[in-house]
Design brief:
Layout: E1 17-21, E2 24-34, E3 39-44, H1 47-65, H2 67-79, H3 81-87, H4 93-109, H5 121-159, H6 167-180, H7 185-188, H8 191-194, H9 197-246, H10 251-268, H11 280-292
Antiparallel strand pairs: 1-2, 2-3
Helix pairs in contact: 2-4, 4-5, 5-9, 6-9, 9-10, 9-11, 10-11
Length: 293
């Protein structure tokens, strides 16, 4: 059976399969596909396509295996009225609950490295057992982080109407908020980056305070910093659009995008500190290396 499966009942799942089609030998990459309340096995001709589908298929199988605690956590999250209220400008509280559940499930059950993902029933059962132990705590941690992000986001948005005297800064902040805090930000932004969002959002407050108290010199500094940042962001955006059109993933470009977030903090709110040293010069150099490849 290769469809309608709700448990790992199909033996070892190889990374590569040999298929005979019309007398020809073809190679395919098998993956579990999420079919909503079950999974099926599909074969793809590219490892990248297989991996994307397989990640979600594995997660669906874990969700089925852990459905008893899962349902309880889902109920708890839906009852969190405060969290739902904070998220309301973006969407439905039930959507947010689902995002938190899936992200926590991935953290609990799926190792970072693809080669460590389970390939047989025993490895799957072990990963599910470990996941069951950790899921509740991870949901708690993630909910706390999401609450913090939404609080910072709300605080910045509240300040913007009175900051219209600096139109370029406000337009930049609004564009940044729209890019960063989408209705699906919890699922779309990798956990490793998500944890830094409160700081990226707080940087807007520091920036607005600086503009408020610093007069013309502060405004001049802000405009210079914005021009430098925009120059790098536009280069990144152009490349990202080209790659998206051709369906190519570039992890180095993704890393550069998050370095640009750190550069914003460094330019507009140095006192909030960045985990690694970052400057316009460093990023210009990094961009040149990226462009040469």
């Amino acid at each position: 059976q290769t469809v309608g499966m709700t448990a790992w009942s199909f033996g070892e799942l190889p990374e590569l399969m040999e298929l005979k089609v019309d007398g020809q030998t073809l190679f395919g990459y098998p993956a579990l596909q999420d079919d909503g309340d079950s999974v099926s096995i599909r074969v793809f001709d590219s490892p990248d396509a297989a991996q994307m589908v397989h990640r979600q298929g594995l997660l669906r199988l874990f969700a089925i295996a852990l459905q008893e605690p899962w349902k309880g956590f889902e109920k708890q999250l839906r009852k969190d009225i405060e969290l739902g209220m904070r998220y309301m400008p973006l969407g439905d509280a039930a959507d947010l609950a689902q995002q938190i559940l899936w992200v926590a499930l991935q953290q609990a059950c799926l190792p970072e490295a693809v080669q460590d993902w389970p390939r047989n029933a025993d490895a799957f059962a072990e990963a599910a057992r470990r996941g069951r132990e950790r899921l509740g705590l991870l949901i708690q941690e993630l909910s706390r982080l999401v609450r913090q992000i939404l609080d910072e986001w709300t605080a910045v948005r509240k300040r913007l109407p009175t900051a219209k005297i600096w139109p370029a800064a406000v337009a930049d902040i609004e564009a940044h908020l729209a890019r960063l805090i989408t209705p699906y930000f919890v699922r779309e932004i990798e956990r490793v980056h998500l944890q830094h969002l409160p700081r990226y959002l707080k940087a807007h407050q520091v920036r607005l305070d600086r503009l408020k108290g610093g007069g013309t010199p502060a405004l001049t500094r802000d405009q210079t910093a914005l021009a430098e940042w925009n120059h790098l962001w536009q280069s990144y955006e152009r490349r990202a659009r080209e790659l998206a059109k051709s369906g190519v993933q570039d992890e180095r470009l993704n890393q550069f995008r998050w370095q640009l977030e750190e550069l914003r903090v460094s330019l507009f709110a140095q006192e909030l500190k960045t985990p690694l040293p970052v400057s316009v010069k460093r990023l210009e150099k990094a961009w040149q290396q990226l462009s040469q490849r």
